[in-house]
Amino acid sequence: MADKEADVLGIVQRLFGKEPASKDVAKKRLKFALVYDKLEISDEMLQELQSDIIAVISKYFEIDKSSLKLDIQRSDDLSALVFNTPIIAAKRKNVAP
Amino acid sequence: MEGKVIVITSGKGGVGKSTTTAAIGAALALEGKKVAVVDMDIGLRNLDVIMGLENRIVFNVVDAAKGKCKIKQAAIKDRKIDNLFLIPASQSDNKNILTPDEMVRLAKRLKHEFDFVLMDCPAGIEQGFENSVAGADEAIVVCTPEVSAVRDADRIIGLLYARSITPKLIINRIVPRMVDNGDMLSHEDVLDVLSIELLGLVEMDDNVVIATNTGASVVHDKISKAGAAFRRIAKRLNGQPDLPIQIPQYQKKFWGKIGKKLGFGR
């Protein structure tokens, strides 16, 4: 009954919050793979884009850089990259000296 | 009345395309339709052994397409089902021996004689794919709940759309226990990524392997869950498009149920 043991082990691991369900990892990898395939861009470029976007947003808003999330939304005819970040505060424009 | 040509394709190999083609063909024939299944994998034929007809081949699809024989001569009658026929691939030819034009003409002739013509497309997106799709009216994409299979399915769906064909999806080899555990993509996950219409869900079933060993069809197997799923898919193709899709369920054991009641597991 190796199946059963694997089941129990999996449940115990998840109860202690050790790792996410492997299918969620699969789904995320899949979504990104499809975007790379369509746009023909690499993971590295996407990382750079993300850090550039952080830099630009940070010019105007105070954001929590670590909680910025990159996601992909797909509908029938288009895929969208979605950057999501909570804004902590707007930066005051520096008054001219 | 003219029949329909349906191509069954997947991009990735080994997801159960040929088995699916044979099973749906058999189920449609049991519904009373006259069916031809065509093995388009020139040079690597397999549908003949899956259907247990490997020792009856005389002519093949290349002969039929090139006019070297009549369709009646190339179509091998199934051993058990009277109105099911196999047109085998040739084993010695090169993949590029057929052209899309020849396939369009062959498909037209086949439609004339059969209610359903199922084209079993080879893996890949090269000439074999082009030829299989050339004469098709509709398409079925088969994938398994794996990253690689779903990715290839997405590519194939794109190529079919480019040919103005809107395919339907069969998800094959679902393991309900693993889905329940969160260790296998669920059909919702796959549909979420691919966003196409679902035609059927087939669970992993030992009976498919057993049936294929002897060249029998799994749709004759009354206790096989996969067989039942293929029979329902055939009904959906044959005038009952709204037949509800059954989701493979994991039969939880007693302690698992208690555990869930107490809030363990997920």
List the main descriptive attributes of the protein structure presented here:
A: 97 residues, alpha+beta, two-stranded antiparallel ribbon, 4 strands, B: alpha/beta, globular
Gross geometry of chain B: globular
Beta-strand segment tally of chain B: 8
Please outline the major beta sheet of chain B: 8 strands, mixed
Number of strands of chain A: 4
Give helix % range of chain A: 40-55%
Oligomeric state of shown chains: heterodimer
The amount of beta strand of chain A, in percent, is: 15-25%
Quick summary:
By secondary structure, chain A is an alpha+beta fold. Helices cover 52% and strands 20% of the residues of chain A. In chain B, helix 1 (17-30) crosses helix 11 and helix 5 runs parallel beside helix 6 (127-134).
Can you offer a commentary on this structure?
The complex is a heterodimer of chains A (97) and B (266). Helix content of chain A is 52%, strand content 20%. The mean pLDDT of chain A is 77. Chain A is flat. Chain A has helices at residues 2-15, 22-39, 43-60, and strands at residues 61-63, 69-74, 79-84, 87-90. In chain A, the strands form 2 sheets. A two-stranded antiparallel ribbon of chain A has the order 1-4. A two-stranded antiparallel sheet of chain A has the order 2-3. Chain A contains 3 helices and 4 strands; from the N terminus they run αααββββ. In chain B, helix 5 runs parallel beside helix 6. The mean pLDDT of chain B is 94. By secondary structure, chain B is α/β, with parallel strands linked by helices. In chain B, 50% of the residues are buried. An 8-stranded mixed β-sheet of chain B has the order 3-4-2-5-1-6-7-8, sandwiched between helices. Chain B starts with a strand and ends in a 5-residue tail after the last helix. The interface between A and B is medium-sized, with 21 and 23 residues.
